[in-house]
Amino acid sequence: MTTEGTAPGEGRALGRGAAGDGHAPDRGAVGAAGLAGTAEAAGSAAGRRVPDRGTAGDGNPPTGEPLRAWADRTSCVQGGDLAFHLTGAAGAAVRVTVTEAVGEQVRLTAAVHAPDWTLTVPEEWPSSLYRATFDVPLENRPTTCEAEHEVWFAVRAARPGTASRILVPIPFATWRAYTHAGQPHRGLYYAEQPYRAARVSFASPGGGPPPERWEEGLLRWLPGAGYQVDFCSGLDLHNGDELLSHYSLLVVNGHDEYWTMEMRDSVEAFARRGGSVAFFAANTAWWQMRLEDDGRTMVCHRDAVTDPMTAVDPRRTTVEWSSAPVDRPENTMTGLSFRRGAGAWGEGMAVMGKEAYTARFAGHWVFEGTGLTDGEPFARGALGYETDACALEWTGGVPRATGVDGTPGSFVVLATADLRHWREYGQGGAATMGVFRLGAGTVFNAGTINWGSVLADDPVTDRITRNVLDRLSGAVPGDGWDAAGGPDEVRALAVCESVLFGADTRGRLLCREVSGQNLPWRPVGAAPRVRALAAGREAAGGLPLELYAATEDGRLLRRAPEAGPREEEWAEVGQVPRGTTGLALCDAGLFAVTPHDDTLHHLSALDPAGPWRVLGDAGGAIALAAMNCRLWAITADGRLRTRLPAGPSDGPVPFADAGPPGPPGPPADPRTTLAAHAGVLFATAPGGPLLMCARPALPPR
Fold it and tell me: Are the C-beta atoms of residues 463 and 370 closer than 8 Å to each other?
């Protein structure tokens, strides 16, 4: 196909309206006038389609065959070529309009001739989502409800990561999966139909967004909120290690249901290397698919019995990720799963506008600036039409992820919604919002497909989204300290037998789970005048696992760590240096710091009644902990410091800074206390929140 002329111009931004089928609530779905532009948006809820219409849009009898178009690929790099193909034009002059779909800006109009045309994407076109619309001027040609005269594609950055550290993939696989739903041998849906297709081609007409436009809200919001992002096709994440290496944050948006094994491997490796992932989405990575024909064909049998790969490489069987023989639950990557979530379909989608999240950890950085308090509702209208959740247990009104369903142990629950009543509309369940660590990276999950629909009108949802994007992209750098509990009066901390113990200003010994969740403390005994706590590591130095305490009047105490009252709670086993505020046990040695003379002291834990020896200056330390054969300390001005636990015979070993001083790091308070366990540091001061640092950085060598 040859180009006869071009005329760039600007289209107007189109507003949002009700979904084309009328089922979606006012704030629960984005209408056909959004990213769809001139596309027809007829169809039922959840992206399901209806057959082609028999008359043209103006009511006059149609002329000729419907015009259909497709492209060779779902993305193209700036400056690259993308080939298009048309049927139904029969040599007629065809007009193509290429629109940058996020801002609805027309980038190109041209007259071309069927059946083939190649677009050379100008290098100055921004990385974004685009729509090429084909029509035959002056002819009343019929269109289809699948909008098969439109072709959607992403333009990737020629120099990835240069203009933005945020990458947004477009879920073309999910869009394609819902295309031709209900048409025998053409669409992957519906699941119960015996004649649904097991493979569909990306190089075929259709495959645009469903009528509800689940992705549109966030895509529209991003530029208006001041965020420049790079785009790609979700298929570009297949073997996407090199592409992802240029970015700090991957944003998965809306309904991204179909993933290849290579996509998961690349995204999980990206996070484990230190990249972050934000899922403003749900039903994510529900089905495993495969790509064939050099990525042009999507395969998803949805049945291990009929998939020939089951006998060859069961890991690649195209079933739910959590199902046999794959057995790789999606929530090991996302934190959440539709298995615990809820779904409202058909007429029931109207319920989406009535639901809201309830904040469960308002002191977390995700909620900073929102003004929310625990127990307060927010994001009304953002839940649906499908949500993701995880198995929870509750302690004192605070939820905690149990992990029995595959959710990582570091998952922190931020908000919940009880949607069990949705069984009336489809699937009863829940919605969960949370954040967790995946290797060196951080993963946030909003737990709902419809998050973007309220962004334009809801300041709390706006603020949460900004917090996530800013923190995880590195635009607002943090030092790794996050809230792990609300304010309390704890002034001494230690971990023993994987339980976090605290002594408070009221003389109580408390305990709670070692977790980033804001769990309540539980009293388990007395801690009279205890100023510092310490405990040894398992199988270290032949010492029993016990708690050690330094008191204000200079006594060294010891007790068993059972989380329950004891008749004889503490035994006095020796003395500590006068003014001790920090205590640690490492390599069968007790270490103590005395801030008044800035001194680090050492005592053999095998002879607790013996004499303490001076090791040298304490580097300004006021609190002390041991982890992985290192001493960690906090200073009165909030600096985190570390050194090896050398004894008196090793000579002077200085402390070195391991993190920047000041907020939002450990409290700059002379009463600060510190504990450590399994690579994680905990710090607090009386009256302040419990803080956690999961990635303490060693000083440069």
Answer: yes
